[in-house]
Design goal:
Strand content: 25-35%
Protein name: HotDog ACOT-type domain-containing protein
Number of helices: 13
Keywords: Hydrolase, Repeat, Transit peptide
Number of domains: 2
GO molecular function, one term: fatty acyl-CoA hydrolase activity
Family: Belongs to the acyl coenzyme A hydrolase family.
CATH superfamily of the largest domain: Hotdog Thioesterase
CATH class of the largest domain: Alpha Beta
Radius of gyration: 23 Å
CATH architecture of the largest domain: Roll
Length: about 500
């Protein structure tokens, strides 16, 4: 895994209210939607997971071997021209597929402390490192930290699959017989603010807390390290990594994870245990502490609740109709908020993918895509709100297909939802696709969802959908903003 320590201006037109009326017929059909809530996991239970997760991760770290904490399998350096030469000159051979169907029961088990990994970014003690991560306003480039987090998650996954102390992925991909990819990223919530006036060293750490047949749940976090030895958790997040066979590109068995202590068993259950929430809404627990909501089951429930799979709720349909009534007439808005058509917020970037950003399987490194998407999304959000924003959360990332080296990548960002009040925030969707330069065919590869906020001021613009698809994006953004806002509010009261 590559662990390197490594804007656009446009005018938005005012909404034509007659154009918004095109949504009228489509939105009326939403009134037939089910009244059952499909909005999923409650924020109060998300934050209980966050607090408990933070505590348990510290206990596992204490049991890890200090000498191996900074050891992670890295990609052996090889010139790109050598990789090309090998791929072009190597004769076709019959691959050994004996390991492709190997059961997890035949692989040696791993403990949670086995995969624990960390590295330090010495921002306070090394100005040269800080300079690499400093943005134009003196703050920290969050996109670069996300790039490092994806590298860390990959290193943790490879460390789980290999013997202790292995620091290099030796041999070719065909000789190893497997590779690891990022399948998705669950919520990454900023629990506190990174400020240029209070620079501290950062520790980025991660470990495997759950394994399926071919998947690994990797939890990562940022911690600020003070000179008085105190530690403060800044961010927690979860990556789902999948092991694939090098020859068939199909899922390959991973080493099973064993939980040795009650704390580790609790962590494991957070990845495997029964989920309290289903597509039909939350199950109410009347007494006792709320058990952890399973990460895997939470994702499955969210998939069922997605507007791509289920219609909006009656409450959501009513909100859309209210929006339609407010902006579909020719009456001026009395609240002083400027409506902006969602289509006018489109901001995109197209670029060639070069081998310097490749990963183990010679595809584009996922962390690099995360950084590109973050920076485009931030540019869009700041242009729309016309001000400086603070990163609040990464709401979801899905990796559908790999991005080949040499391909043409197109990133499209749009403002999906806004709250232009005192607690102002903006939700941005970034879609990545690969363009075939021979046929012109375009294939979607990734989708990223981010939220930024303005901590000191509101803004006087709001995004308005004009088509049914845009209305679904608007609702998805509303769901994400609602969860994030309540999580941060509960955290502040804790």
């Amino acid at each position: 895994m590559n662990l390197a320590r490594r804007a656009c201006l446009r005018n938005h037109s005012v909404t034509s209210r007659s154009s918004i009326s095109r949504l009228g017929l489509a939105w009326r059909s939403l009134s037939r939607s089910s009244s059952v809530s499909q909005e999923g996991v409650k924020p109060a239970d998300e934050i209980k997971d966050v607090n408990e997760l933070d505590r348990l991760l510290e206990l596992v770290r204490d049991r890890s071997d200090p000498a191996l904490r900074s050891v992670m399998p890295m990609r052996s350096p090889q010139l790109w021209v050598e990789s090309l030469r090998e791929s072009r000159s190597s004769p076709a051979s019959t691959p050994d597929l004996s390991g492709a169907t190997k059961s997890t029961s035949t692989l040696p088990p791993r403990t949670m402390s086995h995969s624990y990994s960390e590295f330090i970014l010495p921002f306070a003690s090394d100005p040269a490192v800080l300079e690499q991560y400093t943005n134009a306003r003196g703050g920290i480039r969050t996109g670069k930290l996300m790039e490092d987090l994806d590298s860390l998650a990959g290193g943790v996954a490879y460390k789980h699959l290999m013997e202790p102390g292995v620091s290099r992925l030796t041999g070719s991909l065909s000789e190893r017989g497997f590779y690891v990819v990022t399948a998705s990223v669950d919520r990454l919530d900023m629990l506190t603010t990174l400020t240029p006036s209070n620079v501290k060293d950062l520790r980025l750490s991660g470990q495997v807390i759950y394994t399926g047949k071919s998947s690994m749940e990797v939890v990562v976090k940022w911690e600020a390290l003070s000179q008085d030895q105190t530690e403060e958790t800044i961010m927690l997040g979860r990556f789902t990594m999948v092991c694939l066979d090098a020859f068939t590109n199909r899922p390959k068995a991973v080493n099973p994870l064993v939980a040795l202590t009650d704390d580790e068993k609790t962590l494991y259950k957070m990845g495997e245990g029964p989920c309290l929430f289903y597509a039909s809404g939350p199950v109410v627990v009347s007494e006792g502490p709320m058990p952890p909501v399973a990460f895997k089951n939470r994702r499955q429930a969210r998939g069922k609740q997605s507007l791509e799979n289920s219609p909006p709720t009656s409450e959501e349909a009513a909100r859309l109709h209210e929006l339609y009534l407010k902006y579909a007439t020719d009456k001026p808005c009395s609240d002083g908020i400027e409506p902006v058509p969602m289509g006018d917020t489109l901001l995109e970037n197209t670029m060639q993918m070069y081998p310097q950003q490749r990963n183990v399987q010679n595809k584009v490194f996922g962390g690099y895509l995360m950084r590109l998407a973050y920076e485009l999304g931030y540019s869009n959000a700041s242009v729309f709100t016309r001000g400086v924003l603070r990163f609040l959360s990464l709401d979801e990332i899905t990796f559908k297909h790999p991005v080949p080296i040499g391909s043409v990548l197109r990133l499209k960002s749009r403002i999906a939802h806004t709250i232009p009040t005192a607690s102002s925030s903006v939700h941005v969707i970034v879609e990545a696709s690969v363009i075939n330069d021979q046929t012109g065919e375009e294939k979607k590869t990734n989708e990223f969802r981010f939220t930024w906020g303005s901590p000191t001021r509101g803004f006087n613009r709001t995004v308005v959908p004009k088509t049914y698809k845009e209305a679904m994006w608007w609702l998805e953004g509303s769901r994400a903003l609602k969860i994030g806002t309540e999580i941060r509010g509960i955290r502040e009261l804790a």
